[in-house]
Specification:
With 172 residues, the chain is an alpha+beta fold. It has five helices and five strands; from the N terminus they run βααββαααββ. A hairpin with a 6-residue loop joins strand 4 and strand 5. Helix 2 runs antiparallel to helix 5. The chain is globular, with a radius of gyration of 15 Å. The two termini are 29 Å apart. It comes from Candidatus Portnoybacteria bacterium CG11_big_fil_rev_8_21_14_0_20_44_10.
Length: 172
């Protein structure tokens, strides 16, 4: 199945351009002034992770799906990359499953791009959601994570759907 060109970002430059378009659309709406930069930052972090952690390693289809509907207050990102577990196993080989991988990704400073001193991105996403009227649904492999608006508690469960790569829905 081929994605419409308006939703498919084959590389990070296209994603960055579409992220800027989303920011402009949010600004024009005039409704989300105080959280506008936060919505863009959360979407940017998740989308950039897709490219940063899969560069040269895409199993089949490179790039991401990036769609948004300002009227529905929703942003959707998805990739068919390695997923969180495979990415983190490169630096944390003791990780046994997708549930553990999501917990580590959202709570510990660890990078799948070792030896780079990185690894704060998804912790930043968690903090933004915990302190603002934004929620996140994130699935990788057979694990799902939910971060609710104005709440820093992680809700991680096993999914009945096994996702190849990552799938995220941001609501605001």
């Amino acid at each position: 199945m081929e994605l419409p060109v308006t939703f498919y970002c084959s590389n990070s430059s296209i994603f960055q351009a579409r992220l800027a378009k989303m920011q402009d659309a949010l600004m024009r709406s005039g409704t989300f002034d105080f959280i506008l930069p936060l919505i863009v930052a959360v979407a940017g972090e998740i989308g950039n992770n897709s490219f940063d952690h899969n560069l040269g390693r895409w199993p089949d289809i490179p790039g991401i799906f990036f769609g948004y509907d300002i009227g529905k207050r929703r942003v959707v990102l998805a990739d068919r990359g390695l997923g969180v577990l495979a990415t983190l196993k490169r630096v944390r080989p003791e990780l046994k499953n997708h549930l553990e991988a999501l917990r580590v990704a959202f709570t510990e400073i660890v990078s799948g791009r070792a030896p780079e001193a990185r690894g704060n991105g998804l912790k930043f996403v968690r903090q933004v959601v915990a302190e603002n009227p934004i929620s996140l649904f994130f699935r990788s492999g057979d694990a799902e994570l939910r971060l609710k608006k104005d709440n820093d508690q992680l809700f991680i469960t096993r999914s009945h759907i096994n996702t190849h790569g990552c799938f995220a829905v941001i609501e605001f």
